[in-house]
Design goal:
With about 210 residues, the protein is α/β, with parallel strands linked by helices. It is built from 8 helices and 9 strands. The strands form 2 sheets. Strands 3-2-1-4-5-9-8 form a 7-stranded mixed β-sheet, sandwiched between helices. A two-stranded antiparallel sheet has the order 6-7. The structure holds S-adenosylmethionine.
Length: about 210
């Protein structure tokens, strides 16, 4: 498969396979149940959700346990990860890159967690547009935050991890988005540790006029 960016090749290939093997759902689902229960208590009426870059589905599995009737969808570039995703019931899997994903379909929430940091910065505006257009109401972003764009060496690899204020940039671009809540999860949490992610829950405020 020929991808547009070196970052997509990286995740579609062996690195993405090894990452998927390291992150078993047994370990990651409980901290995600805690995280998403905090996020969902600030929402209403979510019946459908798409995750951009879902890996093996740790977030989606947690979400399904909190919202058993929710329709799920996932965009995932790595084939090994998709084999695990296929085991989640009633989850539509888009076997492609977020950069090639194109659909008119809307979901009550679009979710991206630990993925914008790995997108080529030149492509971010197009990904912001897809997160926005695919959402009927909410956008949830959980990423490594930095007030200014910076690059960090990722497991010895250059040009693979970029931190910035992703949520702030999306709100600057789409002015009907309101910040509903935000928070931080800490790798030293004594019970439910996760990577040091900052999460943001955004809502389209004039969705009736745009429907
Ligand atoms: C660090 S993992 C995060 C996985 C998951 N969101 C989570 O929170 O556990 C990044 C995931 O995004 C996927 N990914 C990276 N770039 C992608 C792209 N351009 N299109 C689709 N998936 C991508 C990777 O294959 C990997 O599964």
């Amino acid at each position: 498969m020929k991808y547009k960016t070196e970052q997509e090749d990286f995740w579609a290939g062996e690195f993405g396979v090894e990452y998927s093997k390291r992150n078993s759902r047994e370990v990651t689902v409980a901290p995600n149940i805690r995280l998403f229960s905090r996020i969902f208590e600030r929402t209403q009426g979510i019946t459908s959700l798409i995750e951009f870059g879902s890996n093996i589905g740790s977030n989606l599995t947690a979400i399904r346990s909190l919202l058993p009737r929710v329709d799920l969808a996932a965009i995932e570039i790595n084939e090994f990860a998709r084999e695990e995703l296929a085991k989640i019931e009633a989850c539509q899997v888009y076997a492609e890159s977020i950069l090639s994903y194109s659909s008119e379909k809307k979901y009550d929430m679009t979710l991206v967690k630990g993925v914008l940091i790995h997108i080529n910065p030149d492509e971010l505006q197009s990904v912001y547009r897809k997160l926005y257009d695919s959402s009927r109401r909410y956008i949830c972003i959980a990423e490594y935050y930095n007030p200014r764009p910076v690059e960090v060496v990722y497991r010895g690899h250059e040009r693979r991890l970029f931190k910035r204020d992703f949520a702030g940039e999306i709100m600057d671009r789409f002015d009907d988005l309101a910040l509903i809540d935000y928070g931080f999860i800490y790798h030293r949490d004594p019970v439910f540790p996760q990577d040091d992610l900052t999460w943001f829950l955004l809502e389209k405020q004039d969705r009736k006029s745009k429907a």
